[in-house]
Amino acid sequence: MAKTSLMVKAMRPPKFKVRQHNRCPLCGRSRGYYRRFKMCRICLRNRALKGELPGVIKASW
Predict the structure, then answer these.
(1) 43 to 4, 12, 16, 17, 47: CA distances (angstroms)
(2) What is the helix (H) or strand (E) element at residue 25, kind and residue range?
(3) DSSP annotation of 57
(4) pLDDT at position 24, please?
(5) Strands 39-40, 33-34: parallel, antiparallel or unpaired by DSSP?
(6) pLDDT tens for each residue of 6-61
(7) Cα distance between the two ends of the chain
(8) What is the C-alpha separation between 1 and 34, in angstroms, rounded?
(9) Cα–Cα distance between 52 and 38 in angstroms, integer?
(10) Residue burial 2-34, b: 16+ Cβ < 10 Å; e: rest
């Protein structure tokens, strides 16, 4: 779990637009962030396996 202070800081509007930082809204993780889904890789995987993300299926070949 990320520091609460860093999560709050990421939610605030930045003083300048270039200072914006992507962070997972569910767990606060800053690395492994998917812009398309707006969450980190771990939360994305958990929600996809539960079937909470429409159109996302486990790959098999």
Answers:
(1) 18, 22, 29, 26, 6
(2) none
(3) -
(4) 92
(5) antiparallel
(6) 888 888 888 998 988 899 999 989 999 999 999 999 999 999 999 999 988 888 88
(7) 34
(8) 18
(9) 14
(10) eeeeebeebeeeeeeeeeeeebbeeebbeeebe
Rounded CA-CA distance 49/1 in Å is 21
6 token code pair:
């860093």
Which amino acid type is present at position 51? G
Is pLDDT above 80 for 1? no
Helix (H) or strand (E) holding 34: strand 33-34
